[in-house]
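Before relying on records like the one below, remember that each one covers exactly one chain. Contacts with other chains, cofactors or solvent are not represented anywhere in the record.
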Amino acid sequence: MLPNLLLLFMKISLAITDILILSLAFQGLILSAMLFYTSKTIRSNRWIAAFIFVIAETTLVMEAHFSGMVNKYPQISPLILNLRMALGPLIYFYARSLIYGDAKFKGRQYLHFAPLIIDAQAQVIYLLFITGILSIPFVTDLYGQPVVQSFLFNKTIISDLPTFFSMVIYSALSYRMVRRSMKAPELSAYKLADLKWLRNLLYMVFALAAVFLVNILLAVVSSWSNYLLYIPATLFIYWLGMATYIRQSKMKTADVMEYTKLPAKIYFTEEHADLHHQQLISLMETEQIYLNPLLKLDVVADKLSLSEKVVSSLLNQYVGKNFNDFVNEYRVLEAKKKLAEPAFSQFTIAAIAYECGFNSLATFQRCFKQFTGITPSQYQNSLKSGKIEANNAQIPI
């Protein structure tokens, strides 16, 4: 009796749950369409609109399978696209667009969406049949292999792992971009608001990925139906769509102009920027080229075998500093070391400034206060009185 009542309760609960999921999914589609339509003003919102659409569409695909509709009408199976592998790239390109501006989408960037083929089993089978490719002996033998048959027809919980890893990896890359951008000096109010919004959004995506992982693990050890993941997923996209739309509607004209202006040209990928950044740090910390008072951008560019524009872009977009600030910060750190060393106690402040690569005492005084908050004399006196300790730490680049 009790098991029968429990079963009945679960059926009623699932029916209510299905209604909730479907209603939120359809509202997600509506919000996605609204954001697509209004993204003529804020083009970066096209990425978030696509993200919302994919979760809503994936939810409807799940319901089509769970309700038995696909089994009853198998002919619709090739028409049902599972786009969930696009979630990671979409959130990543949204972050890039919001941080660096809406640059033109290049051909090779489409490769980020190549993993969509992982969930295209029904479409692959359909194409094999209608094109006659399946009649080729080699393809027929390959098609008959148990591994291939299992991949095409048997959906296991393992097939959810690529989506999970894709979301986590792309979200982590996006979060790294946000953290790096928040370290840039003199952030405008609108850019800081963008970065905080992105950071909070990524926290939500990480939480969603954690729920996804819990569902996968529960499905492995029990008969748990991981379709219940779509309850927080649809709640999330409803909140995301409404929050994005309201946020866009509150933007002032000046903010919109900032969003629609052409972005600065990006001369390198993230990987190449990382490599050149490390080479640049090596020049400073190993070769100490900042001690040269005649150091100019062209000298650094020549040593890195790059153009001046590329090095300037690397510093401004990737490091978040202009050339003079980047070099002078190293010089100030060197000056702090020398001011603390007994061997330089007989040197004047001007002499130490020249020893560290500055060619002007006034420039040294200004830069020292800019990076430390106090003058060189105040720093030296504080060392003598023991109020502060010498700071020999590396510059946070």
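Residues 1-14, 392-397 have pLDDT under 50 and may be disordered.
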